Amino acid sequence: MESRHLRYALALAEHQHFGRAAAALGIAQPPLSQQIAALERELGARLFDRTARGVFPTTAGEAFLARARRALAEMSAAVSDAGRAARGETGRLRLGFIGSALLELLPSVLGTFIRDRPEVRLGLQEMSTRRSTAALLAGELDLAIGRGAPRGAGAEDLVSVTVGRDHLVAVVGAAHPFAGQARVSLEQLKGQHLIVAPAEEEPTVAAWLAGLLGEGAEVPARAGGVTEAWDAHTIIGLASCGVGVGLGPACLRVAARPDVRVCEVSPRVELPELVMSFRAQDRSPVLAAFLDITRERCPGVAERLERHLGAR
Amino acid sequence: MESRHLRYALALAEHQHFGRAAAALGIAQPPLSQQIAALERELGARLFDRTARGVFPTTAGEAFLARARRALAEMSAAVSDAGRAARGETGRLRLGFIGSALLELLPSVLGTFIRDRPEVRLGLQEMSTRRSTAALLAGELDLAIGRGAPRGAGAEDLVSVTVGRDHLVAVVGAAHPFAGQARVSLEQLKGQHLIVAPAEEEPTVAAWLAGLLGEGAEVPARAGGVTEAWDAHTIIGLASCGVGVGLGPACLRVAARPDVRVCEVSPRVELPELVMSFRAQDRSPVLAAFLDITRERCPGVAERLERHLGAR
DNA sequence: CGAGTCGATATTCAGAACATATCGGCGGTG
DNA sequence: CACCGCCGATATGTTCTGAATATCGACTCG
Prior knowledge:
Two copies of one chain form a homodimer. Chain A is of the alpha/beta class. Chain A is built from twelve helices and 13 strands. The first copy, chain A, has three domains: 3-86, Winged helix-like DNA-binding domain superfamily/Winged helix DNA-binding domain (Arc Repressor Mutant, subunit A), CATH 1.10.10.10; 95-163 and 279-310, 3-Layer(aba) Sandwich (D-Maltodextrin-Binding Protein, domain 2), CATH 3.40.190; 168-266, 3-Layer(aba) Sandwich (D-Maltodextrin-Binding Protein, domain 2). The longest helix of chain A has 28 residues, at 59-86.
């Protein structure tokens, strides 16, 4: 039995007339008679009563037609569902990101995405760059936002584009000696207790800092001591109560509370770029849609993406 | 798109391998490749990722396959539903009957039917013979049980079989002069107030009675007076409280209460037969099943039915 | 009783689905 | 690094089936 039989039976039930039903189906009358007869033979049951006043379904026909309607509805739903999934209008996007991405990049991109693709289920999880890279390679994420291009095993399977640049700023409590300064020098920082992201989780940032502060070794080994904090709000909170000098990207200003001061670091120090990564072989249309929106919003991202997508 | 495409896609998703899926489908590998390709072309979306480790559905493929499974399930349900309806295992039977049918005939027949065909929805409605005949012709009933073969316009479209015979008995209260008698004569009845079924609703019975009592006219015109009662229990109730002498079929004994006496009428008077009627052109398998059961239970009905059914 | 309508049947034809044979690409292996 | 084997895609021929045309038989209606 093919779905054609269902369509023919439904048309016949609707028009109650072989000739008109066949015309509505775009075929001649004899093939319709044949197909209905074949269907009835296969089922071993008469589905229609041919009377002088028209063709009417039997009890068995009624039962059959009710199911047939649902079956055809499921089939057309299969087509439309597949199409929507292929166009990225539905599906799932699992996104891992570092906290600072929540300050500037994600709010606008996510807002647009949610408005454009309301039926896409979004999975959002804040995590370190290292973890998001690993999760991406393990297939647990579809997109990762972190600092610095992913490195190490498997990184060649990922595509990364720069979606933002930041320079280093220092955050101090209002009572701190630096509070009145618009800028602090690297020399000044060397004697301070520093609040930074954990070295193991953000290796790129940690390496930058270590180099910046004139040491080849780990940041935690610095004189003056180091406190590791996982996210922007913790850094700001610790700085506000005088624990030390928080160091982080300039976008920290967005989250700055009234009781802290943000100072430029002099000379200006560029941080590893905010980088968006995804699996090179990932053909998900949802991902493509998200990248499209990112492309629109972040001029300069476009070319980098084009180069990769064009190579597919 | 045909259901074949759904079956092929599901097989491919199950085996994750074109060759094995084709073997499971009983076809060669090239046609499977072709049909899947045609399906993907029609949908405008890739449904499967062909990798070195196997064939896996894409996101769109997952969405499609979920619907496809349901569609095919509906199709096979359509087949089985139609088959069950055709075999009379499901469906509906609307039955109109006179009250006395509830006393002997229906209890056993209905019991068997409900046990054999639990999924058939039964519509049971007590009504007069006249009304059940009209409802049968109007298509509001599938089967009618009454007294006397239906007559009048449309009766030739009905098939009737005798399913029971009864003779007339008289029902009186325990205090009635007849109470001690085993039998009463027609002469004795002539002076009594009688309780009978309404003439308009049970014309066959009324005609019999009128003839019996030696009058060409209507029963209500009889000296002694007449009360019309619709059902057996009312006749018995009125008789028990001394309203008069109830007249009805012998099966009234089944419903007789302790405070009434049932007397044979002498000479014995045969009542119009209990008749089961249905539309001659009704091919409903549920009706056929009900008739089968009736046939098994009522010997003698068989030949009458065979004659009709054989003529189809 | 003849005309008209409707569904079934017969026959032919075209297209689609399938089978056989072969090619191209990708991994694994000596 | 070349070779081999596996797998899916492609090419080509064959078969089968669904559809069109022509016609028939049954029933209705004027």
